[in-house]
Amino acid sequence: MSTLGPDVVRVRYTLGEDWTGDDAIFFRVLLSDRASKRRGLLQVTNRVRDRIVQTLEPAEEWGLLPYFEFRSESEQAALKEKAWA
Amino acid sequence: MAFADDLLEQAQHLANRERKEPRQASLRRAVSTAYYALFHLLISEATLNWKRVEYRDVLARVFEHGKMKSACRKKMGELTGYYKTNPRAGSELTAAQHLHRVAQTFVEAQNNRHAADYDNSRVWARTDVLAEIESVANAFRSWRAIRNESVAQAFLVSLFGGKEPGREQ
């Protein structure tokens, strides 16, 4: 987590299957509100995605296709989804 | 403006349709539309190679989502293997990185599209939707940077679901 930088508040994940039935890992990445601003969002999400994939290599190590969801702290505060807590 | 670009613009419009408290319907349609923007970009690029213009739309109907995903996944695996050979910086590596971004974005956008269209349990936040749209826009730029490269053209052929040219086993 610490290697992902201050833009990332926390990461949760779930193992499952994607729509075609391939084994997958679904990462839920909670971003700071500052990092979630549209300007720079692509840079942040690419960096997080690349760092996690390069570190864990889910496809190579476990045959899991990685998928990512992003939301901001304030969005989670409003939605209050347990899976993101 | 090409159809794929129109779809991408429409996705952005839908994602920002409500200034506050975006409706799930708007966000879901934005996600789905962003995927179809990339889907149609790649298909239109592939069918451009068909000499007889009047048959390009017919040819476009041959593409299947699942086969395109499989081709993208295979390409991602190949490129990951290529990176592990520590290739020298240069045009070949740059093209590989662009193509990897296109394939990765396609796979992720396709799964999001399926969730957006069929999974009512998933709640979408605007950040997630904007992130996907930005990724697709970035994939557009990556594609346009490499569209004339052989590796990109071979990738287009692989989207049909057969073997990629030059990769007989």
What does this structure look like?
- The complex is a heterodimer of chains A (85) and B (169).
- By secondary structure, chain A is an alpha+beta fold.
- Chain A has one domain (2-74): GMP Synthetase, Chain A, domain 3 (2-Layer Sandwich).
- Helices cover 33% and strands 32% of the residues of chain A.
- Chain A contains three helices and three strands, in the order ββααβα.
- Chain A has helices at 41-56, 58-62, 73-79, and strands spanning 8-17, 23-31, 65-72.
- In chain A, strand 1 (8-17) and strand 2 form a beta hairpin.
- The longest helix of chain A has 16 residues, at 41-56.
- The two termini of chain A are 15 Å apart.
- Chain B is mostly helical and 169 residues long.
- Helices cover 70% and strands 0% of the residues of chain B.
- Chain B has helices spanning 3-15, 24-47, 56-60, 65-83, 91-118, 126-146, 150-158.
- The longest helix of chain B has 28 residues, at 91-118.
- The model of chain B has no long low-confidence stretch (mean pLDDT 94).
Counting DSSP H or I runs of 4 or more residues, the number of helices of chain A is 3
List unreliable stretches of 5+ residues of chain B. Answer: none
Q: Can you give the helix content of chain B as a percent range? A: over 70%
Radius of gyration of chain A: 13 Å
Arithmetic mean pLDDT of chain A: 94
The class by helix and strand makeup of chain A works out as alpha+beta
Quaternary class = heterodimer
Content-based structural category of chain B = mainly alpha
Strand segment count of chain B: 0
The total number of structural domains of chain B is 1
CATH architecture of chain A: 2-Layer Sandwich
Number of strands of chain A: 3
Figure out the total of helices of chain B. Answer: 7
Shape of chain A: globular
> pLDDT under 50 segments of chain A (min length 5)?
none
Q: Main sheet of chain B, how many strands, which sense, barrel?
A: none
